[in-house]
Structure formats: C-alpha cells, structure tokens
Amino acid sequence: MNRDKTAKLLNRLIETCRDGEAGFQRSARILRDAKWRLVCEEFEQSCARGARDLTQKVYAQGGRPPRGGSARGALHRRWLSVKAGLSEKTDQAVLELCERDEQRAKREYQRALRENLPPQVRDLVERQYRVLLDHHQKVRAMRDAERVRTV
Fold first, then answer.
1. How much is the pTM?
2. Which end of the chain lies in a sparser environment, N or C, as judged by fewer CB atoms within 10 Å?
3. Domain named DUF2383: which ranges (predicted)?
4. Are 76 and 15 in contact (CB under 8 A)?
C-alpha cells in the first residue's frame, strides 16, 4: 500500500477515534449512573490517545490528519441527545447507542486490517483494535446490566 493510501486509511481511523471520543464525552454528560460515566470518561481518553497515535503515523506517511471527526459521527451525537431526552430509560438508550458506535468502529478497524499496511502501522492498528474489542465488550456488558436493572 502506498503512502497516500495509508495516510487516507489512517485518516478514516482518526475520524473514527474522534467520533468515539466525542460520543463517549457526550454519553458521560448524559448518563445518570456514576460508574457508567466513569467508564465513558476512561474510553473518551483512550479514543483521544488513539487519535493522537494515528495522527503521528499520518505525518510519518507525509499526510495531513483531519481536524475533527466525521459528519456521520456529529449527526449521530445529535441523535444521541434527542433519543436520551425522549427516553424514560436514559442510561439504557445511551448505552445502546454507545454499543452501536463501537460496532461501527469495529467495522472500520476490520476494514483497515484487511489492507496491506506497513508493519509499524499494522502493529498500531492491531493494538488499537484489541483495545476497541475490549471497549465494545464492556459497553455491551454495561448495556445488558442496564437492561436488567430497568426491567
């Protein structure tokens, strides 16, 4: 894979990380349960670190990283606010949206890992993918616990 294509692929992952960062930040503000808020704040910081690490790789490829997340992510965060405002089960609704966001992020990383990436880039993307899998599993467990709690 040439440097331009690698930089473009990394830029998509940066947008994904920034979408995750902003989404978890928004979720932490909306969630009522303090322990769920803390987890979202931790994941927000993890996504920010991921974006910073990917940004360094984009510069190393001679590319320019994006300034923010994706338009889709911004729209989704607005929907999160609306849905949470309309739902009696706010935490459950927010966690369901977080789980969907993590599922979408997983697909982006899986798509990237199917490419022929330079070794240092592949190592970073694989490490971030493993962190993402852990986040996704924890978000799913939180969502399921909230479903049981609100029944």
1. 0.86
2. C
3. 6-115
4. no
- Please report the DSSP string for the chain in residue order: --HHHHHHHHHHHHHHHHHHHHHHHHHHHH---HHHHHHHHHHHHHHHHHHHHHHHHHHHTT----SS--HHHHHHHHHHHHHHHH-SSHHHHHHHHHHHHHHHHHHHHHHHHTS---HHHHHHHHHHHHHHHHHHHHHHHHHHHHHHHT-
Q: How far is CA 35 from the centre of its chain?
A: 19
| 136 exposure class (CB count in 10 Å sphere: 0-12, 13-18, 19+) | middle
CB 99 within 8 A of CB 139: yes
C-alpha–C-alpha distance, residues 6 and 3, integer Å: 5
Domains of the chain plus CATH, in order, are 3-149 (1.20.1260.10)
Structure tokens at 9: 């692929």
Quick one: pLDDT at residue 72?
60
Place of tokens 């493993």: 130
Distance in angstroms between the alpha carbons of the first and the last residue of the chain: 50
